[in-house]
Specification:
5 helices; mainly alpha; about 75% helix; about 120 residues
Length: about 120
Amino acid sequence: MRTKLFLGTQAVVGLVLVVFGLNGFLQFLPLPPANDELAAFGMAVYKTGYIFPLMAILELFAGVSFLLNRFSALSAVLIMPVMINALFAHIFLDMNGIAPSLFIVLGILFVMFKNKEAYALMFKA
């Protein structure tokens, strides 16, 4: 039962990441309305020219690896800084649209907990 819960959560988070990753390239989902601060932050990030495509690639990689249950521990470590940044942008700049970011961060933490043995060497002194 516990394994099915972990795999189910991993699959749902993987599917959400694949959809958001594809949306980074195809723009088929409309952006939620944002206040001036978040819009300015988003525009500054967009003007760098590389952060949004990099985020989309990482989301696609993590989503596919979560769905295939391959390299999920590595993918969780790679995608977590991106999703924490998205969550903090919503917390500090605009609470509108925080639910998807919060769901993904909690889901990734769930996946990381499932793969906690893979992180043992990282924390070994």
